[in-house]
């Protein structure tokens, strides 16, 4: 576990200052259950990314999936499906 911490620390030190200085980025902070935090740390370690990049990746993936689901729900019916349903 100590080796993973050192690896993660080096990743954080390499990327955080660049994002901190970038006006296109904002800080995000919150409290989560420890079990979820541990899963998140493992997610980051498995992918070789720091917490900042891991959080960005997960949020991006979440909103992509959410957008896809919303598009599937709001797909307009075609003329064929309306005709089929009305003749029933």
TrEMBL record:
Provide the protein name: Uncharacterized protein
List, alphabetically, the SUPFAM superfamilies matched: Ribbon-helix-helix (SSF47598)
Q: Which Gene3D superfamilies match?
A: Met repressor-like
Domain of life per record: Bacteria
Organism for this UniProt entry: Phormidium nigroviride PCC 7112
Q: Which InterPro entries match?
A: Arc_rbn_hlx_hlx (IPR013321), Ribbon_hlx_hlx (IPR010985)
Q: Name one GO biological process term.
A: regulation of DNA-templated transcription
Key words, A-Z: Plasmid
């Amino acid at each position: 576990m100590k080796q993973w911490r050192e690896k993660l620390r080096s990743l954080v030190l390499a990327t955080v200052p660049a994002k901190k200085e970038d006006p296109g980025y904002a800080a995000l902070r919150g409290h989560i259950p420890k079990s979820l935090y541990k899963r998140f740390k493992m997610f980051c370690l498995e992918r070789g990314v720091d917490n900042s990049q891991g959080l960005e990746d997960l949020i991006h993936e979440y909103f992509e999936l959410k957008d896809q689901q919303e598009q599937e729900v709001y797909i307009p019916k075609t003329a064929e499906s309306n005709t089929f349903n009305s003749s029933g």
